[in-house]
Amino acid sequence: MIKTVVSSALPIDEKLRIKKNILTNGKGKKRICIVTGTHGDELEGQYVCFELINKIKANMEKLDGTVEIYPSLNPLGMDSITRGVPNFDLDMNRIFPGNPEGSMAEAAAFAICEDLKGADMVIDIHSSNIFLREIPQIRINVDEAEHLVPYARMLNIDFIWVHESATVLQATLAHSLNRCSTPTIVVEMGVGMRINHSMGNELVRGILNLMKNMGIWEGEISPAVISEPVISNGDNVIFLNADKSGIFLTETRNNTIVEKDELIGKIVDPLSGDILQTIKASERGLLFTIRAYPVVYEGSLIARIYKL
Amino acid sequence: MKKEIIFSMKSPYRDDFRIQAFRFGKGIKTLAIVGAMRGDEIQQQYICSQLIRILKDLEEKGKVAADREILVIPSVNPFSMNVGKRFWALDGTDINRMFPGYDQGETTQRIAASLFKAIEGYEYGIQMASYYMPGDFIPHVRMLQTGYEAVEDAKQFGLPYVCIRQPLPFDTTMLNYNWQIWNTKAFSVYGGQTNHVEDKTSKLTIEAILRFMKNNGLITSVNINPGYLSDIMNEEELITVKSDSGGILYRIKSPYDNVVENETIARVIHPYEGSVISEIKSPCNGVIFFAHNKPLALQGDPLFKIINS
Prior knowledge:
The complex is a heterodimer.
Chain A: E1 2-9, E2 15-25, E3 31-36, H1 44-58, E4 65-70, H2 75-79, H3 104-116, E5 121-126, E6 132-141, H4 145-152, E7 159-163, H5 173-179, E8 184-190, H6 197-214, E9 230-231, E10 237-241, E11 246-249, E12 256-258, E13 263-268, E14 275-280, E15 285-291, E16 295-296, E17 301-307
Parallel strand pairs in A: 3-4, 3-5, 5-8, 6-7, 7-9
Antiparallel strand pairs in A: 1-2, 2-4, 6-8, 6-15, 10-17, 11-13, 11-16, 12-15, 13-14, 15-17
Chain B: E1 2-9, E2 17-25, E3 28-36, H1 42-60, E4 68-75, H2 78-82, H3 107-119, E5 124-128, E6 135-137, E7 140-144, H4 151-154, E8 161-165, H5 175-181, E9 185-190, H6 199-215, E10 231-234, E11 239-242, E12 247-251, E13 258-259, E14 264-269, E15 276-281, E16 286-292, E17 296-297, E18 302-308
Helix pairs in contact in B: 1-6
């Protein structure tokens, strides 16, 4: 059943509608929500929504509970390849839990939060941005780690990044929901404006596995083996940033173990032909982020390594 | 006047990115002023350019305090202004969401860090700010309630209002918040809109900043009217009037206008048929403090903020 969560009139003959698909069966009372499309340039979640709906519909009798799927929290951004909400300054994932008295985006954020509250689990799927390519990973605030890591391990992803608490992240959907006792896990994978089917399939399998462990899904998980993720421990994530502005060239793929001093890539000047900077791994570890967009300025993030 | 470059960076395809600073007087670091941080804050930059012109003239005439220092940074983001973008052109990040910055971090974190290093340690800080929603304000001084806000000092601008509000989580990365936490008495001055240079509001704002300097003994022998006895108000006290429909907005009332309860202050017009879809009425007697200034209204848009009298 398709339900409209937010409906708001735009100036000219159009309504903004944020919708969800509710799949429900059996007597189970548990509810899991899959949300994505907060940033209009992140598309990986679209494939996950599509595949998950079809896998459940094909075996509806195996469902015992409710699955709610929200493919696009920011439909105007998705439709105009805009990361934020068009005509609004702030990142949508920095205005939660929203404000019913605020602008359209703030009021929508409030309504979304209210709609999700009380779910037994929320999976918030992101796909980095156009600049960075990420391996399938889950990001959890250290304050929520004890409670959420056991669930995150069921999601068939490669890496769990338990990060330090930052005040600004308090305005994210995940923090807002976790704060009101609605467990919410953030998935990051792939790169903006693209869809990687393989990563999507792995996550769909992980979501079904999580549902099975929660008692919502009785179907088989195929293949049954679920990845055991690397879990970050302490402050061992290393950031490699550009020291020079130019074009970043690389042959390196992420989701590999890099050795200390191994070449990650180089920043070049296409006018002079000079190599401006050679970027090497400062430690041995799991390369889980790598720059996807070649134009860089001083400071642009090139790679992230989890030190092993 | 001493002119210096406080930050520069190579660009892959453009001229070097530079942040210029203008220093007046010397000695105790007393006042730092920051202009445009976004590419559409042209009025904010214009105001700083006029302050630099006036301070240069005053300094040559010996009317700037000799033992104290004023620093003016008219633009932190000329690159975005030159290409007509509000935020950092490559990645869309907002420098004013990056404070206190990080000199080993992302590009806009590094810009924020270099700016913060240059303006840290001043007794007073003024940021020429713009609002996240499009609209016109009664010129005012705004500050976050961090526990360090210098509300009484803000009255020295002589602007009609001093507006305070509780910080939200995302405010903790703004310049005003971090300046306060690092012991500068920080004020955000909201004058006119972005993308315009308006004579009336820019003149009022320039006068207010010069009045603040005069009241603090930074400049002398300058003929400025005494300004207003500022009212202090909390943003939560403002009455928000929202649009109940989408359409073409026909605004009737503007900032400074007095309104009475049930008076029509705007109309939302059907975008095709021209009929009035909605009469927007004032819910109270008061004064318009903020008014939406775009010709289109979305359902739920805050159109006005009214000071309830």
